[in-house]
Amino acid sequence: MWKFILLTVIVSTVGQRVINTAQGKLRGIPMDGYVSYSGIPYATINSSAGRFQKGGVAPTWRGVRESQQRHCTLSSRPEECLHLDVHVPAKTNSPWPVLVWVKGGSGQYHPGKLVGNDIIVVIVSHRIGPIGFLGMNNEKIPGNAGVKDVILALQWVRDNIVAFKGNPNKVVVAGQSFGAAMVEALMLSPISHNLYHGVILQSGSIMSPWAFNYDIIERATALGKLISSSDNISSILINSDIGELVSKCDKLDAPYFPFGISVDKSSKNEGRLLGDAPFELLKRKDRSVPMMIGHNSEEAYVFVSMLRQANVRKKLAKDLSFLLPEELKFMNEWELKQVFKQIEDMYFKDNTSLAAMLIYHRDAYFVNHIHRSVSLHASASDHSVYYYQFSYTGNAGVKPEPGIVKMGAAHSDELAYLFSNEVLDGEDVAVQQRMVQLWSNFVKYLNPTPQPSDLPHWETVNPSNPRLLDISTEVVMMEYPYRKAQKMWDEIYEKFYYSRNRITAK
Ligand SMILES: *[C@@H]1O[C@H](CO)[C@@H](O)[C@H](O)[C@H]1NC(C)=O
Ligand SMILES: *[C@@H]1O[C@H](CO)[C@@H](O)[C@H](O)[C@H]1NC(C)=O
Ligand SMILES: *[C@@H]1O[C@H](CO)[C@@H](O)[C@H](O)[C@H]1NC(C)=O
């Protein structure tokens, strides 16, 4: 009886959880061990003309605003996307360190496990797709709107998280895949200065060919021309229906995502996200913070069905060129042939199996770019860089494709352990606990394995020989496993990517 009364008292006070912010009052929803304040608007956009521009001041309201589920998709109106969710431990020993999770797309993230380790989790939605990343290098369409949204969200966290018993001086920003590339863009930008104290980049880098566009105006122009024959492309893009922009993107002949992060030359200095190409900025970076960065051991497994359909093995027998990252630029046939030969010798010697294709894609689209980013950050930074490989193949995450053995962790598999609300069992539970512990330790201490700890010591990166922590049923430090291939990619990118794009980017 007493137990029952006590329980109802606790539930009803938690249920009443109303917080006062500068915008107005918010009511949270009690969850299992935490309280969620969802759908909080952190910025405004009032007109079609402003849809590609930086958002304005966050709205205010009277009375108590209820939590609400918002879904930001490719074709949402921009104001639908400028919302964040705050998940707060239902305990008393605050102030809590804060993890700000930057969504990569429109996926759902369940924060329960991380919040259970005594941190606040803030999930940030932002403009995505053409609305988030079209750029014409003019004031109406400067580019990078999605990343500028995240900066407004981080300012919101700085100014409001105290009301949620969060610590504004302990903020770690994290993302996965395109979300990781966006977080890396923040690290390279002068306008996000002092808004966070650590970063986590999972399976993505702004160095990846799918994350950054050198030809943003050409891409935006091509999209405009698919919609109208008028000469004023900016006007077409501003006045088109968002659904039409999104559906026409499918018709663009662009590899990977049609629109990514770009240099924005048009904005005045104080609003400019990136003034130069990422490689240049990474070399002279001076505003670094501690970071965790890594990849999954079989990133490319998510491409299995696509690679099967595309009948790549047949094409491969004739010509490799369709496989090369778009950003490699060759002056002549001879240069191209040299690179083909190197790649063929490395990956496809007497072997064009799907397994060989997956290894090639892992390196060409993910791992080699993450590794270059690790080396550059570690060289230019005084702060710790923690490098990992997630290699656990469990029951959660991407399901195995019939006929193709899943040898390691696919792209996004680690999210199934960090952000899942499924009940796991067996070894999966131990791996989940370890992941959550490493990640939340980094948020709390900017060190994933503070001593004393039952975890092995995670060495920081030595730029001359970056080693990494392999995370699976065991957790061990090891040599970077793909050194031979990395050497080849370093040479190829040194010759055929940076130097030439460096000229056109200026
Ligand atoms: C939208 O309108 C509100 C209220 O008038 C204003 O505070 C805000 O700055 C505007 N947003 C933009 C982007 O102009
Ligand atoms: C093109 O359209 C934009 C947006 O409507 C406008 O600001 C700009 O002045 C136009 N440019 C020309 C050359 O007409
Ligand atoms: C082809 O390469 C894959 C990946 O390295 C390997 O697993 C497979 O055994 C190789 N097959 C042959 C026939 O060499």
TrEMBL record:
<keyword id="KW-0325">Glycoprotein</keyword>
<protein>
    <submittedName>
        <fullName>Cholinesterase-like</fullName>
    </submittedName>
</protein>
<dbReference type="Pfam" id="PF00135">
    <property type="entry name" value="COesterase"/>
</dbReference>
<feature type="domain" description="Carboxylesterase type B">
    <location>
        <begin position="16"/>
        <end position="487"/>
    </location>
</feature>
<keyword id="KW-0732">Signal</keyword>
<feature type="signal peptide">
    <location>
        <begin position="1"/>
        <end position="15"/>
    </location>
</feature>
<dbReference type="InterPro" id="IPR029058">
    <property type="entry name" value="AB_hydrolase_fold"/>
</dbReference>
<dbReference type="InterPro" id="IPR050309">
    <property type="entry name" value="Type-B_Carboxylest/Lipase"/>
</dbReference>
<dbReference type="InterPro" id="IPR002018">
    <property type="entry name" value="CarbesteraseB"/>
</dbReference>
